[in-house]
Every structure is written in C-alpha cells, then in structure tokens.
Write a structure and sequence with these properties.
With about 300 residues, this protein is an alpha/beta fold. It has ten helices and 14 strands. The strands form three sheets. Strands 6-7-8-3-9-10 form a six-stranded mixed sheet, with helices on both faces. Helix 5 links the parallel strand 7 and strand 8. Helix 2 packs across helix 3. It starts with a strand and ends with a helix. The mean pLDDT is about 90. The protein binds adenosine-5'-triphosphate. The site of adenosine-5'-triphosphate has 10 residues, from helix 1. It comes from Vallitalea pronyensis. GO terms for molecular function: ATP binding; ATP hydrolysis activity. Keywords: ATP-binding, Nucleotide-binding, Transport. Pfam families: ABC_tran, DrrA1-3_C.
C-alpha cells in the first residue's frame, strides 16, 4: 500500500517552475531517499506534502487521504523534522517532549510512556542537560523523537544529516533504520552515501523533474555497467593478458592504470568465462578480480549532467 502518493505535481513561484510534473509513490515501511542537489525542489515538495505550500497543479495523498493546502487534517499521519528544528533551549529533553505531548493532546500516561521510550530510542534516555547545550547532531536526534511522538505513519525528515559530522550522521541513519518497522521514512538529502547505507527506495529530483525512481537494487541492475576490474601482480602479467586476441570480440573499451585494467564488455557472462580461461591458461593469478557495480554516485553523475 502507498503511504504517500504524488501525482503530476507542479509548482511555480511567479514565472519560475520549481517542480515540474512530479509523480512517485512511497510504500509502507520503506526508507525512501529523496535525492537532489541544492535548489532541486526537495523542501518545496515536502512543504506541499504538509499542506504548507499550495501546488500549482497535481495531487498528493497521504494514507489514501488527499492533502489540501492550508488544512492540517492529513498531518495527523505525519511526523516532520525540518532541516533546522527549533527548540526551547532552557528545557531538558524530557520536559520538551512532555510539552509537545500536551500540545498534541496525549494523555499523561501516554506522554510519560512515549517520552521515555523515544528518548531511549534516540540515545537521550538519561540526558539531564538543557537543550541549549546540545550539538546539532543531538538536537536532530531529539527532533526525531519529537516527530515520532504521535506515532506517525509517515516520518518526513528534511536533510537530517547534511550539517553533521560522520559520527552524527551515522547516529541519525541508525535511528532512521531502527524506526523502519514502526513507520515509513522519507528523508531528503544530497549525500548519496547516506542513501546507499539505509534506503531501499529512491527518487532523484533534477531541477524539479523526476530523473529516476524505484528500488535501489532495481535501478542499479538496470544501469549495470558490464565492466570487469582486474588487477595484476606485474606489468608483465598485464601485458600478457592484454595480448590475447580472445578478449577482443567482447571488449568495447579498456581503461588502464598501472597494473589495473577495467574491461567494458558487451556480454558480461561470456566475457567472464573468457577472462577466467585466459588467466588460467596463461598461469596468471590476479591480485583482484571484480565485476563493477554502479554506485549511486556514478548514476547521479550519469543522470544529472
Ligand atoms: N517562496 C519562494 N519563492 C520563490 N522561489 C522559491 C521559494 N521557495 C523556494 N524557491 C526556489 O525554488 C527552488 C527550489 O528550492 P527548494 O528549497 O525546494 O530546494 P531544495 O532541493 O530543498 O534545496 P536545498 O537543499 O538547498 O534546500 C530554488 O531555486 C529556490 O530558490
């Protein structure tokens, strides 16, 4: 079932088209990476999902209900972490969550139970310091706890890791991965390695248009490069290998660097059989032999030219 469905969404600010006929859906319990360069239109899209910006065209539905600009009804399904969350710095985390729980209308018992559970989840279970003393990473963790307070079906995080150091980023990604069983996560980013670490589905936005979407594994297999990397012990081994005419029928292009080569081939299976035979018949033991997988970064560069 689709928790979020976006259909033919467009948005212009004056004469500037910022989102152009965007359509994609997010299935239940996925971790969805919404990727795009600065200014691609990620925040604008998220604010339209929250009913905070009026679309020029198209529809959005959350849990099967249509989002209407200016109405907050569908937001009961959503937990939102903005890119720079704001807090009352003089409060402790538990005090802040209690206040949010009261505003949301939770019972005293629910507030106590949920606050303790969520602070433990984000590693702030015993934190007694005031929020004003926290690093940006700790504030983001508290922001996730707050966004999860009303047990949302959809958690939307706007660039939750962008301003963090590698340890802070890892902590946030670990938390998002942990909540996957409880809710559906959509997070925007331009950090591709974060997406590769935890996301199962992605949409890539380029200048307001959808450039790619689907499961990460399917996208990668569709962009399979048919490339083999072989690293030799010596230049003599490499030259001997390359002198074999057998390789030529399958090889489109060869990249060479020191004792490494990358063979770009037409038929990966046949080429692999041939390469292994050539290595064996010439008594060459390579240092490394690898079928090259496309990375999200290489796909991004290929699509966003
Ligand atoms: N209220 C507005 N009025 C005019 N232009 C706007 C407005 N809000 C956003 N834009 C423009 O829309 C484009 C998309 O902005 P948006 O903030 O959605 O991008 P983004 O992908 O979230 O980028 P970033 O990672 O930098 O936040 C930008 O060119 C931005 O300048």
């Amino acid at each position: 079932m689709a928790i979020l469905r976006i259909e033919h969404l467009s948005k212009s600010f004056g004469s500037k088209k910022v989102i152009d006929d965007l359509s994609f859906s997010v299935s239940k319990h996925s971790i969805f990476g919404f990727i795009g360069q600065n200014g691609a239109g990620k925040t604008t899209t998220m604010k339209m999902i929250l009913g905070l910006i009026k679309p020029s065209k198209g529809t959005i539905s959350v849990c099967g209900e249509k989002v209407t600009y200016g109405q907050t009804k569908t937001n009961r399904h959503i937990g939102y972490l903005p890119d720079v969350p704001a807090f009352y710095g003089y409060m402790k985390p538990i005090e802040y969550l209690k206040l949010c729980g009261q505003i949301t209308g939770l019972s005293r018992h629910q507030i106590k139970r949920k606050s303790e559970e969520l602070l433990t989840l984000v590693g702030l279970g015993h934190e007694e310091k005031k929020i004003s003393t926290f690093s940006r990473g700790i504030k983001q963790r508290l922001g996730i706890a707050q966004a999860l307070l009303n047990e949302p079906k959809l958690l939307i995080c706007d660039e939750p890791t962008s301003a963090l150091d590698p340890i802070g980023r890892k902590e946030i990604l670990d938390i998002l991965y942990k909540v996957k069983g409880k809710t559906t996560v959509v997070f925007s980013t331009h950090i591709l390695s974060d997406v590769e670490r935890i996301c199962d589905h992605i949409a890539l936005l380029d200048n307001g248009k959808l450039a790619m979407s689907g499961t990460l594994s399917k996208i990668k297999s569709e962009h399979q490069q048919n490339s083999l990397l072989i690293e030799f012990h010596t230049h003599t081994d490499k030259d001997l290998f390359l002198s074999t005419p057998l390789l030529m029928p399958y090889t489109m292009h060869i990249e060479q660097k020191d004792t490494r080569i990358i063979l770009h081939v037409t038929d990966l299976t046949t080429a692999q059989t041939t390469v292994l035979r050539v290595l064996y018949e010439n008594n060459i033991l390579p240092v490394k032999y690898q079928v090259l997988e496309p990375t999200l970064e290489s796909l991004f560069v290929e699509v966003v030219k």
